[in-house]
Specification:
- It is a single chain.
- By secondary structure, the protein is mostly helical.
- It is built from seven helices and three strands.
- Strand 1 and strand 2 form a beta hairpin.
């Protein structure tokens, strides 16, 4: 699925202001192109600046993935700090030029300095999202029917795509669980919490 295919052709319901286009493009890539065995190293404030697409070995553990990601972020941090310090274009290598080309012309030393602290890794979700679309066929019609009966906006039936990919057994590190990723404290406000 091409990332731009996610956008509605009629933007009256889903307006896309120019200020959000780069961010929407980034998240579209994450959910349609980049799988959970890959990820993007990017600037956390300027999502259109993507430094690298990492691919992890199939059997890589979480710890190994963290190590690979940390090394790559360190690599790009050094390049950005070099760009912040050097005003002489002849001292810049090919890898520096590639990173510099990602930024607008006239980017200042201070901006490169700041960018060196804004490196972020985002794991892809394309395969997980596709699986969630398949699973949603089991749950979404019932959820929409119940929401309609309760007077709740049926658009909220799509939240589990992001929260859990429609996996009823989903659990987060923060203790959130289920399709909606309720935490115990939030769950107590809205439902019965027991061993089930």
């Amino acid at each position: 699925m091409a990332p731009m295919a996610l956008y509605a052709s009629d933007n009256r319901d889903f307006p896309l202001p120019d200020s959000l286009k780069q961010d929407v493009r980034f998240w579209s890539r994450i959910y349609t192109e980049v799988t959970t065995s890959e990820g993007l190293i990017h600037d956390k404030q300027h999502l259109n600046i993507v430094y690298d697409r990492l691919s992890f070995p199939p059997a890589a553990s979480y710890k190994e993935r963290q190590s690979i990601t940390k090394k790559k972020k360190k690599y790009y941090k050094k390049i950005l700090l070099d760009l912040a310090r050097s005003s002489n274009p002849r001292l810049i290598s090919r890898r520096h030029k590639r990173v510099k080309a990602l930024w607008p012309s006239g980017t200042s030393s201070d901006e490169y300095q700041q960018a060196s602290n804004n490196l972020r890794f985002q794991l892809g979700q394309a395969d997980r999202f596709k699986e969630g679309l398949v699973r949603s066929g089991r749950w979404q019609p019932f959820i929409k029917q119940e929401f309609k009966a309760l007077g709740i906006p049926t658009e909220l039936a799509s939240l589990p795509h992001v929260e859990s990919s429609f996996r009823p057994d989903a659990a987060s590190h923060a203790g959130a669980s289920g399709l909606w990723q309720f935490t115990r404290s939030t769950g107590r406000r809205f439902m019965r919490i027991d061993h089930v």
